[in-house]
Design a protein that fits this description.
The protein is an all-alpha fold. Helices cover about 70% and strands about 0% of the residues. The chain contains one helix and no strands.
Length: about 60
């Protein structure tokens, strides 16, 4: 009985460590994606300061 419990605890400990690694990797990726979104949002706001935050408009491009 004790051996079975020790084996189960070992497996659960391994699973927890694996999940912890996954969460740590996801945290890094989420931070990178958040920075990218912030950068793109600032870039869009810089291009169209008079649009009031509207990204798309019905205006024709200047080459028409």
């Amino acid at each position: 009985m004790t051996k079975a419990l020790e084996e189960q605890i070992a497996h659960l400990t391994c699973a927890v460590e694996d999940l912890s690694d996954v969460v740590a990797k996801q945290d890094i990726e989420l931070r990178q994606l958040t920075q990218l979104v912030d950068h793109l949002a600032k870039k869009i706001q810089g291009r169209e300061p008079d649009s009031g935050g509207v990204i798309f408009s019905d205006e024709r491009p200047p080459h028409y």
